[in-house]
Every structure is written in structure tokens, then in C-alpha cells.
Write a structure and sequence with these properties.
Blueprint lengths: L1 H17 L3 H8 L3 H9 L6 H17 L4 E5 L5 E5 L12 H8 L6 E3 L6 E4 L3 H7 L1 H5 L2 H8 L5 H6 L2 E6 L14 E13 L5 E15 L5 E11 L5 E2 L1
Parallel strand pairs: 2-6, 4-8
Antiparallel strand pairs: 1-2, 3-4, 5-6, 6-7, 7-8, 7-9
Length: 238
């Protein structure tokens, strides 16, 4: 049982690396969606050789083309997640209910912050808060599109989070879920800028605050990414 669970987790992590949801991953790899669901849930044992072949195939595909998501360092040695997987472009309306469904696939995952080695858990409240919070409702235009396009890089945005600050839970508003207060971290990401011919010119850089609640159980849970805003009008050149 333990081995099966480990393989199931490895399968889920492998899919998350691609940035695809289950349906997209199933179409890309030519595997029935039901089979993917059964493997990830641990209800059906995935052969280890299939997992190895999938990992090799994904690595090979990544080496032949620009990565959909990768991390660079700026001139001040600060990390930026470059997101080439743009799902919501300027002329497309954003369906936040669709985004919420996509984010539900992160629930149960655990990721680590490089700077602090803290483990960040994804709980049931994250998708709803990300999509329907007061902070999101206030976002307009490019900043709203930028937050929508963060969804394929949640793991990477957690990984580079830095400069932690701490606050109490004001008047115990969130009860046991934030019994020990809140952490906020800085995180940054880039959205591609294309010229009139569709060629990549560079990246618009955005900053955001990663909001993490400190649960009564002692764990840290991702709650939202807030204050998404463009840092500069001059795109980062690549």
C-alpha cells in the first residue's frame, strides 16, 4: 500500500510539472482520463516502468522547446518565475469559476519554499479565496489577467517565495484555521510580451504577496496571492 501511494504521488507531481490539468495531460499523453484519475488516487497501481517512460518523455519534450515555466535570476539575484503558458490573453474574458475548478487539483499537494525550507500545504479554501476574494475583485485589466495566468505556476511561485513577514489573525477572524497568525512572502513572475508579428519581445514583470495561514495544527496553508501588480512598464528582455 505504501509503495502504491508513493507511485501515485510521483505521478501527480510529474503531471503538475507540465502545468496541465488531468484532462489536458491525458490528451497530451494519449492516456484515458479515467486511467490518470485512478493512478493519481492510488485506486489502481501504475507500473513503475510507465512512470519512468513518462518522466523521460516529458524531460525530452522540454529539452526540445522553450519551457512553459522556468525560473531566472534578475540583476539583483532575485528570482522571477517566467510563465510562457498563457491561458488568458488580452481579448479573452476570464471565467473565474473555471479557474477555481482547475485549482482544486492542487488540493492535498505540498510544496517547499527554497529560502526557508518551509512546507506549504494546499487546503480546500485556496481555490475559492484565489478566485473570489475582495483582493481579486479589485483587480482590473492587465493585473487581473496576470493573476489568472499564475495558475499554472503555483509550485514555482511557492518555491521562490522570500522575505517573510508575520502578522496576527485580526480579532481571531479565521479561528483555528489561522490560530497562529499569518505569513506573507514576496514572489514575482513574468508574462510574455509579443510584438505585432507574434515574436517574443520580453516579459512584463509582476509582483505579488503570497498569503499563508498558520493553522492550529502547526501546518502552513496557502491561502491566496494578493496585491498582484506590474512592477515596471519596460519589459524584461530575453
Amino acid at each position: 500500500m505504501g509503495e502504491q501511494y508513493t507511485i501515485a504521488e510521483r505521478m501527480k507531481q510529474l503531471r503538475n510539472i507540465t502545468g496541465f490539468n488531468r484532462a489536458e495531460f491525458a490528451r497530451q499523453q494519449g492516456i484515458p482520463l479515467r486511467t490518470i484519475e485512478e493512478w493519481e488516487a492510488g485506486r489502481r497501481k501504475m507500473p513503475e516502468y510507465v512512470l519512468r517512460l513518462l518522466a523521460y518523455k516529458i524531460q525530452l519534450e522540454s529539452s526540445k522547446k522553450d519551457q512553459r515555466i522556468h525560473i531566472i535570476q534578475d540583476e539583483n539575484n532575485k528570482s522571477i518565475v517566467l510563465i510562457n503558458d498563457i491561458r488568458f490573453k488580452s481579448r479573452r474574458n476570464i471565467d473565474w469559476n473555471e479557474i477555481e475548478e482547475y485549482l482544486k487539483e492542487y488540493i492535498g499537494n505540498t510544496y517547499e519554499i527554497l529560502e526557508t525550507c518551509e512546507k506549504i500545504y494546499i487546503g480546500n479554501d485556496f481555490p475559492d479565496e484565489f478566485c473570489h476574494s475582495k483582493d481579486k475583485i479589485r483587480l482590473k485589466g492587465a493585473n487581473e489577467k496576470a493573476k489568472a495566468n499564475m495558475i499554472s505556476a503555483i509550485e514555482e511561485l511557492i518555491y521562490i517565495a522570500a522575505d517573510r513577514t508575520e502578522t496576527e489573525d485580526y480579532q481571531g477572524k479565521h479561528g483555528a484555521k489561522a490560530k497562529k497568525g499569518w505569513y506573507r512572502y514576496d514572489t514575482r513572475f513574468g508574462i510574455p510580451k509579443y510584438d505585432e508579428n507574434g515574436e517574443l519581445e520580453g516579459y512584463h514583470i509582476y509582483s505579488a504577496k503570497m498569503l499563508v495561514r498558520r493553522d492550529e495544527d502547526g501546518k502552513l496553508y496557502l491561502y491566496d496571492f494578493v496585491r498582484t501588480k506590474k512592477e515596471t512598464s519596460s519589459p524584461l528582455r530575453q
